[in-house]
Amino acid sequence: MSRKQQWTGWGQAQQAEQHYLIEPRYLAGGGDLRHVSEFLRASGWKDITRKSGTTLAFDSPDQMVRVAYQPPGGWQIHGAAQGHQPAWQVALTPQTPVEIVAGLTDALTKPRSAHAPNVWAPLTEKSWSMQQDDYFVAQSPDRHAVVQYVKAGGDGSQDHWWVGARNEHGPVWNVQATASTPLNLMQSLTTALADPEPVMRPRGHVPLSNRIRVTSVSVRPDQLGAWHQARLSAARAATWGRNWVSSRARTSKAPGYARTR
Fold first, then answer.
1. 180 with 88: CB under 8 angstroms?
2. Terminus of the chain with fewer CB atoms < 10 Å: N or C?
3. What is the DSSP secondary-structure string of 92-116?
4. Closest by alpha carbon to 101, among 189, 194, 222, 210?
5. pLDDT tens track for 140-182
6. DSSP 8-state code for residue 204
């Protein structure tokens, strides 16, 4: 073997591809829908896309929540009334970055924290400004993203959350959520929104804007696949753990069950 030849393993060497790290993430563009959908599938959600007539649709294991995506409307998330929790709905336009969508949808697959949720805390921790007038408003330090709780007066039935981002060309995306949307989900969304970590986009999917910072990186397909699989493996492991605990709880309460020493 000559010195110029290099061992590439048993398979063919993979060619690195050009990708781009973009910040702030709320101006990075929509991204790959599979970032959301594959995590839901790995978490035990039922894929009902074919019979729903939408581009994507998933039902939660208890069939109380549906997540769907259909252009040009974008994401629609519906939660049914359950106990003291009234029905709720969140609509996210198509260019909402999938990492921010996943902030909310990932939280749907996890148990609620015992701590009281605080939607504003993730924002103030990242130096977003807060003000209160006719409604509560938080604004990003660069003034390109906003979170609002709009009080519409009257009996409060028209109150709602509004989240959005804009660049020099105008509005880019927005989220509207009913006031009844569980606050832990809204906190998860604002946590993802305020996260300073950049997000990755492939060549041809970088927004035309001078309000973003872009770093070029070379990534092999197997590296991208490994990162994606790590995210899905974490979802599967968490789902397996919850199912195991649930099955043990049901078994311990079954009639005639006796614990032996």
1. yes
2. C
3. E-TTS-HHHHHHHHHHHTSPPPSSP
4. 189
5. 999 999 999 998 877 878 899 999 999 999 999 999 999 999 9
6. T
